[in-house]
Design goal:
Layout (H helix, E strand, L loop, with lengths): L5 E6 L2 E6 L14 E3 L6 E5 L4 E8 L4 E8 L3 E5 L6 E9 L2 E9 L1
Antiparallel strand pairs: 1-2, 3-4, 4-7, 5-6, 5-8, 8-9
Amino acid sequence: GGIGTAQTFTIDYYKIVVSTCSAGIEENTNSMFKLFPNPTKNKAVIEGLTGQNNITLTNAEGKIVKTYNMFNGASLEMNLEGLNNGLYFVTVNHDKGTEVLKLIKE
């Protein structure tokens, strides 16, 4: 596709929208969570967690590669060693809904 086009794929109940118009990672400025460092090499931290959170790390093909369940933790350090370099999606299910953050492993 050209600039500004998007393709939508549904893989195992996950909806993934692939946009071809951005160069780099777009910061979700409305996010209640902070994900850093991004891009990263071997670990990433999510801050701003409250209450109960179910967190999944999904690769660009839609395969879940890690899952975490957090109860009353403010932050989570994710170990990414052994994972291939590339784009990942961090999905945080929390009491106010679901948020998906992009993560690059290099």
